[in-house]
Amino acid sequence: MEKYKVGVIGGTGMVGQRFVTLMENHPWFQLTAIAASPRSAGKTYEEAVAHRWAMKTSIPEQAKSMVVLDAQADVDKIAGMVDFVFCAVDMKKEEIRALEERYAKAECPVVSNNSAHRWTDDVPMVVPEMNPEHLEVIPAQRARLGTKRGFIAVKSNCSIQSYAPALHPLMKYGIEKALVCTYQAISGAGKTFERWPEMIDNVIPYIGGEEEKSEQEPLKVWGHVENGKIVKADAPAITAQCLRVPVSDGHTAAVFVKFADGKKPSMEQIKADWADFKGRPQELGLPSAPKQFIHYFEEPDRPQAKLDRELEGGMAVSMGRLRPDTQYDYKFVGLSHNTLRGAAGGAVLLAELLCAEGYIDHK
Question: What is the pTM of this model?
Answer without folding.
Answer: 0.97
